[in-house]
Specification:
Elements lengths: L2 E4 L7 E3 L7 E3 L4 E4 L2 E3 L12 E5 L4 E4 L2 E3 L3 E5 L4 E6 L2 E3 L6 E3 L4 E6 L2 E3 L10 E6 L5 E3 L2 E3 L5 E6 L6 E3 L2 E3 L5 E3 L7 E3 L3
Length: 191
Amino acid sequence: KKLVINGENRSSTIIDGNGTGDVILITSMYVDITRFTIRNSGDSIQVGNPDAGIFVDSYYINILDNDIINNRYGIFIQNGRSHMLISNNSIMNNRGDGILLNGGSQRATISDNIIANNNQEGTYARGGIWLLSSNNNIIARNIISNNSGWGNIDMANGCYGNIITGNSIERDVKGIYVYPSCHDNTFSYNW
């Protein structure tokens, strides 16, 4: 069965982590999180288990129409998870990456989001969206702006088969940063 968690209004329905742990931890399949402000996670950067606004350790997850602000990581997708839709969110002012797809995450669609002002501390993160050994994902029609670190979109450790298209990428030193080990990715109509 699918679990659908809908807030009444993303600006007034607030889930506040009060600076401790993950604000939302998803470990079941087929979950939708829609129309919330998700803020104030803890500040752990523990490898494999950092604190996040939304920490995903499952499959078939939809994260739609949320404001994800003031967390260590905005959205952290755990190793090898797949089939995510992350769309129409505002992911801003997080101390680490806006979105991190960790080792082996695949078949995520990240579209129509505003991802801005993340990783202002400049440590333990890459910036707007970081794909780490993650394959066959689509990143499309996002506004990605003013994220510190390696780039607004950063791809590392052998990423392949990703489609990066139609994104507005601005006010960052590197824009899109692709490590040499990455291959067979498609980039089109990004500006």
